[in-house]
Design a protein that fits this description.
The chain has eight helices and 41 strands. With 628 residues, the chain is mainly beta.
Length: 628
Amino acid sequence: MLNIRTFDAKGGGNVLYKALAHPVASVALQALAARLSTEGGLALYDPDGMATTLVALYAGFRPTAGLYTHDSEQVGQPDGFGGVKLALTALGDGPARNVLAVSFEQEKMLARLGRVTRAGQASLSLHEARLPEAMLSQPRHYLDKLNFATNFAFFRDDERFSTRLVTANYWCDYGARDVQYWLRLYDHAGAILAEWRQPVPDGPAGIVIDSAEVRRRFGLPSFCGQLFIHVIGARGHDVVKYALDIHGKGAEPSLSVTHDANAWPSPRYATLPAPAPGEKIVVWIQNSHATPIPSGAITFNPMGVEDHHAVEGDIGPFASRAVDIGALLPDAVWPMQLELRSGNHVVRPRYEVTEGIRTRIAHLNVERGDLKPEPALRTLSPDLGRGFLLPFPILDPAEFESWVQPTPMSEALRQLPLRLDLFAADGSPLGQHFLGNLPRDHHTAVALHTLVDEAGHADLVYDFRDGGDGDGWLHALMRYRRRENGHTAETSFGSHIFNTLMTWRNEPQSYSGPPPGLTTRLFLKLGQETRRSFCCLIYPASVEGLPSSKTQLHLHAADGTEIATETIAINASGSFMVWPHEIFGNDRVAHAGAGGYVLIRDLTCRLFGYHGQWDEAGGFSLDHMFGF
């Protein structure tokens, strides 16, 4: 396990971790560690409790002359390196030749250390590993989270496949100007293939980063690696959101879509299906750090079973490895599901399913280690109605099979007491299906197309009639297969409380702002080439008696210009299939161009959606949408 502190539920992401792990900073940090490790005893002063994270990422900083703290209550406590924490006031009496403050604040740290160091002790900070000022959105405050609006994307271009990252300049809504994307492309071995900046027009312009165009521009060979994204000029929030299309070239029929990585490494991931007969599944392990992943540090196990299968061989800095799940766990067969023990080495991984001549890509989800079963979920206020629910589409049973597979998503959860509530597109109920109190290692996958005979949606909800526990982090994997040609897409997501006026802790959430979340701002990209985009909009309702939505669809050109607006209404617990070419007409959609998109807005309720593309050969993609 990589002993790093990246994220907590209360404070959110740890910005100092991002500053330490940034690929540009990593070069300077590695050089500094190499120098200090050859210059005599090294002491660390740890003002923010990040020394173990620094040493985990760069082993050369391991203190050989003690770890010092200014927190009197921490003195004498274990330091994480086999010793105990020492008082900062005793630093001058110690053997250290070099003292490194684990901080990027040069003047403040040197002034502080100057009060306690003796002659002959050199005081340093991490100042020389700061990013260049030209890369900072908030130069006056280095550890402002907006300076580290970063993320990774799976990125591939070869003879079969291309990838296309699509998003919009949502930063402009917070007053951002002169936004740029700083991009670095790594190949499978972690070598840098290209590095460039992509300016973004002011205003709500579309953003497209196409792997085929990048390959042509830089004269690159085939590649399959990862793209590191750093947004300069970010405002409002530090989350880099995008949709990622993976499509076949020429006669290759594959088409799938996934979305932004989580940006924070996690010890465990779930929502990974085992291979069905005739399928091959590989999980793309993409190292998020400048330190290698040791052989055996990453393992897979059947969900709920402590039977661990290790990935052998080191994985280099920023390198990618395709792990064949069938070869690693030959007895694992769908509907079994698997768990990835990733050791904090990777951000949200992707998995790729090959079935016959087609492939599809989807993502794993973070499995929480900070959640415990919550008895209060059994007795929520009546004002919260059905409470937590996970909405997802049921596609037309005449054309598609639709499957749902509930997934444990916290380490402590041993049971899943669940029910499916089924709804027609107009919001009228189509019945319920009690799943029981499922054990953590269950192999349940529900064929929704056998429960209803029309398109609509389902809500997965807690049902404690047979006991069991919930944790408010209810997830499921949804799979859709077209009957005519077998083309399949899958996605996964988690539950929320939807559209209640009363709140419970941080629920119901919104795409921005505090609870209760009663507004919608969703991004729907347009289709490219011969493909047409669509989305299934769902009006999830934890309570009954809500009015219909007042949903506006804004068609934007690639440069951000609004071309047209249409209004639709969706009944509570209902759904609506949005086809931009039908709503706005083919001419307007064509005028929007590559990078054009539809912004879905509603000021009365929070809608949830699943988007994708449809091609002329009957292939389709599907994943949940993002909002901002």
